[in-house]
């Protein structure tokens, strides 16, 4: 298990790109599911979710946890949030400023680790408990099994699919059987997910962490092509003038919307500036009237989206955690508002 980007500069800052200037995301290592008759059977008071509020991959899991009513049962999947600053030793439960002078005052504090794990300072400590040989990057989200003291999953795409069913026997009646990956739409969802992942979700990172002009342009172009394609898909469905939310696939909310949302809601406040994805902003009504409306329908229309979107942590995390992109770690004040109103 080795991280492809797990390199540190002499100054302690993480080097995100490989030697050819391209950012490559590592493959996740823990790929199990919560399911009956498995090492991780559905149960109350057993599983925990570790997230960073800034992280778009962890954000997917927070949204599905709410959409599925898992948050309604307090001991089903409690959430523990790391501090927003991703420091030299990765995500942390304790402010880096306490041990690193140059990081004093940075970051938005999280919740601290769960009871019984007060000795753990970094998220890495959970990875090492699960696998003492673990040598790759310690990413969020993490689905933690308290009984087995191990990680069930650190791959958000599989985790959010698993949450459709994993805890159904415990959630309130009205959430049971609800799925964001319905059988009849799977083929289309998979197709959309594939290019949205590569060109948009990961595309903003590949653009932002490129360390050569060529690598930057190689990723900038497909990113904006994909945004044009999304705009056209939503225009065809009349999203701009619709009073009701319009969805990417079929006429119901699916994981395709959830996966796209966590990138698009970060686009204007962060990716446009910090990752130099600056051909347009999503709020540019002359370019993305439909995509912009789609975003605002989800944010303003559904508590699962709005209540899990923390602009303060999002901005603090990105602008303060990547000194290669932003050496003085200044968090820009704008654009304001972070997201426009539904009819603005
Ligand atoms: N494939 C993973 C990717 C998760 C991921 O890359 N998370 C980032 C935060 S946005 C992370 O935790 N990075 C920590 C690090 O690189 O040290 C997923 O989708 O779950």
From TrEMBL:
<dbReference type="InterPro" id="IPR036282">
    <property type="entry name" value="Glutathione-S-Trfase_C_sf"/>
</dbReference>
<feature type="active site" description="Nucleophile">
    <location>
        <position position="55"/>
    </location>
</feature>
<feature type="domain" description="GST C-terminal">
    <location>
        <begin position="182"/>
        <end position="318"/>
    </location>
</feature>
<feature type="active site" description="Proton donor/acceptor">
    <location>
        <position position="205"/>
    </location>
</feature>
<dbReference type="InterPro" id="IPR036249">
    <property type="entry name" value="Thioredoxin-like_sf"/>
</dbReference>
<dbReference type="Pfam" id="PF13409">
    <property type="entry name" value="GST_N_2"/>
</dbReference>
<feature type="region of interest" description="Disordered">
    <location>
        <begin position="324"/>
        <end position="344"/>
    </location>
</feature>
<feature type="binding site">
    <location>
        <begin position="155"/>
        <end position="156"/>
    </location>
    <ligand>
        <name>glutathione</name>
    </ligand>
</feature>
<dbReference type="GO" id="GO:0005737">
    <property type="term" value="C:cytoplasm"/>
</dbReference>
<feature type="site" description="Lowers pKa of active site Cys">
    <location>
        <position position="271"/>
    </location>
</feature>
<dbReference type="InterPro" id="IPR040079">
    <property type="entry name" value="Glutathione_S-Trfase"/>
</dbReference>
<feature type="binding site">
    <location>
        <position position="91"/>
    </location>
    <ligand>
        <name>glutathione</name>
    </ligand>
</feature>
<dbReference type="InterPro" id="IPR016639">
    <property type="entry name" value="GST_Omega/GSH"/>
</dbReference>
<protein>
    <recommendedName>
        <fullName>GST C-terminal domain-containing protein</fullName>
    </recommendedName>
</protein>
<feature type="region of interest" description="Disordered">
    <location>
        <begin position="1"/>
        <end position="22"/>
    </location>
</feature>
<feature type="binding site">
    <location>
        <begin position="137"/>
        <end position="140"/>
    </location>
    <ligand>
        <name>glutathione</name>
    </ligand>
</feature>
<dbReference type="GO" id="GO:0004364">
    <property type="term" value="F:glutathione transferase activity"/>
</dbReference>
<dbReference type="InterPro" id="IPR047047">
    <property type="entry name" value="GST_Omega-like_C"/>
</dbReference>
<dbReference type="InterPro" id="IPR004045">
    <property type="entry name" value="Glutathione_S-Trfase_N"/>
</dbReference>
<dbReference type="InterPro" id="IPR010987">
    <property type="entry name" value="Glutathione-S-Trfase_C-like"/>
</dbReference>
<dbReference type="Pfam" id="PF13410">
    <property type="entry name" value="GST_C_2"/>
</dbReference>
<feature type="site" description="Lowers pKa of active site Cys">
    <location>
        <position position="318"/>
    </location>
</feature>
